[in-house]
Amino acid sequence: MSEKGWSQLWLDYASKAGKDSVNGIRMGNVNVDIKDFDVDNRVIESAVKELNRAFCGDNDKVKVTLVRNKEVAKEGYRIGNIIGGSNENVAKSDAPEYVIEASDENGALYGVFHLIREKLMGKEYPNICADCAPSNPLRMMNHWDNMDGSIERGYSGRSFFFVGDEIVVNERTVDYARFMASVGINGVVINNVNVKWAATDLITTRFFDKVKELSDIFGDYGIKLYLSLNFASPIELGGLPICDPLDKDVINWWKDKIKEVYDHLPDLGGFLVKADSEGRPGPFTYGRTQADGANMLGDIIAQYGGIIIWRCFVYNCTQDWRDTKTDRARAGYDYFKGLDGEYHDNVILQIKNGPMDFQIREPISPLLGGLTKTNQMLEVQIAQEYTGHQIDVCYLIPMFKEILGFKTYCRDDLDTVADVISGRTMGNKYAGMAAVINTGNDYNWTGNDLAAANLYGFGRLAFNTELSSEEIAREWVRLTFDLEQDLEDKLVDMLLRSREIYEKYTSPLGIGWMVTPSDHYGPSVDGYEYSRWGTYHRADHLGLGVDRTDKGTGYAQQYYSPNAEMYNDPKTCPENLLLFFHHIPYTWKLASGQSLIQYIYDSHFEGCAEAEELAETWKEFEGKVSDRTYACVSERFGRQVYNAREWRDQVNSYFYRKSGISDEKGRTIY
Amino acid sequence: MSEKGWSQLWLDYASKAGKDSVNGIRMGNVNVDIKDFDVDNRVIESAVKELNRAFCGDNDKVKVTLVRNKEVAKEGYRIGNIIGGSNENVAKSDAPEYVIEASDENGALYGVFHLIREKLMGKEYPNICADCAPSNPLRMMNHWDNMDGSIERGYSGRSFFFVGDEIVVNERTVDYARFMASVGINGVVINNVNVKWAATDLITTRFFDKVKELSDIFGDYGIKLYLSLNFASPIELGGLPICDPLDKDVINWWKDKIKEVYDHLPDLGGFLVKADSEGRPGPFTYGRTQADGANMLGDIIAQYGGIIIWRCFVYNCTQDWRDTKTDRARAGYDYFKGLDGEYHDNVILQIKNGPMDFQIREPISPLLGGLTKTNQMLEVQIAQEYTGHQIDVCYLIPMFKEILGFKTYCRDDLDTVADVISGRTMGNKYAGMAAVINTGNDYNWTGNDLAAANLYGFGRLAFNTELSSEEIAREWVRLTFDLEQDLEDKLVDMLLRSREIYEKYTSPLGIGWMVTPSDHYGPSVDGYEYSRWGTYHRADHLGLGVDRTDKGTGYAQQYYSPNAEMYNDPKTCPENLLLFFHHIPYTWKLASGQSLIQYIYDSHFEGCAEAEELAETWKEFEGKVSDRTYACVSERFGRQVYNAREWRDQVNSYFYRKSGISDEKGRTIY
């Protein structure tokens, strides 16, 4: 257990080396040679320091050569080992020797972390060869931390960036940067996209010094700091009467402000903006387009090398539930598709993976690839807002893999989401992936120790979208724990099954939203049914689901052919999205031969039983992981099982009471 | 408009006298003669002062003689007029002359306020004869004000007693005491029954001085101050490990504490205690009974003349919704009936009007009269927690009249709730009525100006339970406004209809609880259906309602015969409580010939249409009431109409979607 008050996650060198203290740096184990890099460069310094921390065991001698090689891809690296490996001819006393080639400092640092990862996993070490280039140019974490220390949708304690409207910079900040860099993250937005109160002042002299401190720490690990921006800053900070993006005074105010910001924060990556959404101000107020708003800021920030990341989460959040024509799922495409090609080069649209809001199952947003002339970035959420609040285990990488692998049909080849958001499809420079992060100041960073698999996994996947869910899970398990093979396999299996289990006991077949309003944990089948949020299941005594076909809201037509046709027909629509696209009678026969209502019953009984199995399996880990981890995860499994039972019984009772159709298997429904 | 920042409610002397300033005291108008009362007594002084304030107009000359007469009932008064009246022989220049007889100072004060009321109503004045005695010995207001200034279930701004954990005493406090005394209130609990944080300290030196100031102001108007008590005070303040009411150290701690309290607050009326309820500490923790807890405190406080008011709102608030045997409605009777006769003489049980929690329609609590050897007090709620948040107009006096008139059959005569809680049934000394008050620091005290009718009405009704709802409404309208007869009639009519209208558009036939959880405003039909609060409607595709008969939870059997039999049979059960006592099919024929489902549709369409009518009628009051009042009430009517439509459409859609039965009249259901 770390003495620091926070764990070392997957970089627990001391524990892996079998030592008591953490980060005890044993000098002399590591011999680093640096060629064509500036030895005083801060990222190179961090890389060297990290090698020294990692190779801290008594038998951890190693020689590493860092070489600049312009042929290596941007932020990529190559590793070869010269001496060592499984070659038995090498004397045991010889330190293994590696060459890490990279064209830039970040690449060198990532190469070092690759080497450390292999060492910590203890398999095949020291026989390492690698040739890696990041799949995505931008690999970002979005913190929804508020300056009062609260975290919107945070399930792991309070913010470690902000306390009482002040910025905190300490040793934990450095560890945070190390962990992020170790999985290839190169951008972090430190504050909530809903920019309110003191957070508006982050771009003022009140906070410049502290933001600079943070930015410098990030910079040491190759990470750019970004800020979420209040679009109404000209009003709130500048005292102007409006924030119309085409108004000269507004533009001039921004010019001065952004100059001032870059005078103080020369390394700033840019700004993230949530405009015209859920009550946030934006260009719509002045009859301007989203492009007007984004381009104005983009043009000003361009000279400083900054970018504007503009969120596409724009929809009418005061819908009348009686209105079956308006469809929130359509909103992103309807608002943004028409402006395709109008966004300037340093503006990038950040698009949530689905058209709704991070449900356990949604179709892929039709904006991804729907836009063909616009920089775009995929936004996912590892904060488990709708997926169990880091109480329930829900390893999300399989979901992200599905998203990345989705064929958009935006062109004949290179048309998957992974292609589009990496820049491969359009050959654009600004592209990538962002995750709403799941961290807080809990000892273990992520509330549930097992939720760290998503933190680790997102970074790894953003860096290399070709990795499989299992590879990532296995890496994380090996790095984090020290388990025998059978338990390692079990834990990997638990993670891999967890998303499907969560899906089974919650809302069926892509309909989503049957959660407790506001809080978003636990069931409330009608909780959002009569609300203003555009989130309805339309269940009646005959069936449920939303007709989003060409006879309904027309949402399915936002996809390219043949996806549009596939979704439009309930017979070809993937069954796990059936209720997202169609209003289906309870008696509808699924491919399995089950009726829809029987599927609802069966999947909920199964999902709950499987959650109980997970909890039961976890008991085998007692004494095999730290007592703290065991207790923390056990406590959460207890709550997950309770939650799964509530979901099972409430969903089943709701549909039984509504349909009047009994469970074929005669199980208890209330 | 008052310059003070708060209105003068029904005592707006200046406005009634046609003057600009408020409370301008014109000396010399009033000639007061005092016989057998101490002229320096503070209550008598207040009475004289009030006469001088009230008779402030140019033609308001009056002569009043206050006479002590021991034959008049406690706190009662008699008024006769000697000169004046409609006798035309009396010269116009002669001041009218009244004699007010009372046996105590409170009676004299109430007589004065009676005289003032008649003067302000301007009808029949100055021909006044009265012989009044209060129906109930205790007539109390319960504030749910927290010391941070928030008010639990407050809809009229913040507390005027507490700001930032400090007690506020100012001119508004004096006006508050005047208004309460003017309607006969003689006891006020200043702090929330959920006693937390700083409020626990109200019985410590930290607050004694300020509480004493408040108590003195109240005392000037014949009002005793009471405090809500934290049963865990021995732990939280005393540092004891327990608060077991039978533990010697705990008892000694309370002895010392209560002595200390009365040393500082000699006029304190006593304590109100919410124990073992909704997470509050209590005797159950130590395996003791509610009587053990209450009697321990009662015995200690007796020597100071204090009383212990013990709330009966005890139930299991962590019920499993799947459990259809447990019935929250039963809880009060189950917990308290067995202890009947065990409570000491200065302990009084405070019983909510219904077995659940202040719903728009509930049966009468079977504890009222169910207890025959225990002091008991009726608790109602004029804070409109479930009845429209002082946004929707809901004049509650008709509900209270029904409650008071309910025949409990606890004996052959004198068996109504009014008899029981007045002390007439048992001949006991401590009895009465308490209301959870609806005030806050809004200008108009009650959020909606029209909600003041409940504030006024509760006091008047507690003083005289024989007054009709219409009499009280008319008094309040005349005192508050200055309307021509037709508008007066319209406003009285609006008030009298308002409760039924609210009931129609919200939850049907006594089932209750279809409200937004926590907030309790607006519909959420399933909001409490799968919760832990014991609040279910059990609707399925065939019908709804809770079986509380002898075949169900047995709740109906808690009543005396013939009420028990009446409620037990759906054919004799009052239809407005049908779903409270029975699970009824949608096709059930009501007395009107309507099916249950058709009744649900019809009543919701009607209720909503009638709410719209109320709002429409209010438009006639423009220019007839102050602009401030008109705007305030208009704004709230707008929200009421919106609310009523949401209720109508959500309830109707919910039951249509569940039952599949169409509206016979083909109206729009979603």
Give a written overview of the molecule:
With about 675 residues, chain A is α/β, with parallel strands linked by helices. Chain A folds into 3 domains: about 10-130, Chitobiase, domain 2 (2-Layer Sandwich); about 140-480, Alpha-Beta Barrel (TIM Barrel), CATH 3.20.20; about 505-545 and about 585-660, Alpha-glucuronidase, C-terminal domain (Alpha-d-glucuronidase, C-terminal Domain, Alpha-Beta Complex). Chain A is built from 18 helices and 17 strands. Chain A has an 8-stranded parallel barrel. The first copy, chain A, has a 5-stranded mixed beta sheet with strand order 1-2-4-3-5, covered by helices on one side. Chain A starts with 12 loop residues before the first helix and ends in an 11-residue tail after the last helix. The interface of A and B includes residues 322, 541 and 650 of A.
Q: What is the third-level CATH name, the topology of the largest domain in chain A?
A: TIM Barrel
Global outline of chain A: globular
Q: Give the % helix of chain A.
A: 25-40%
Radius of gyration of chain A: 25 Å
- Characterize the biggest β-sheet of chain A: 8 strands, parallel, barrel
When the domains of chain A are counted, the total is 3
Instruction: Going across the biggest sheet of chain A, name each strand in turn.
Output: 6-9-10-11-12-13-14-15
Number of helices of chain A: 18
Which assembly state applies to the chains in this document? homodimer
Q: Assign the CATH superfamily of the largest domain in chain A.
A: Glycosidases
Please identify the top-level CATH class of the largest domain in chain A.
Alpha Beta
Number of strands of chain A: 17
Write the CATH architecture name of the largest domain in chain A.
Alpha-Beta Barrel
- The proportion of strand residues of chain A reads 5-15%
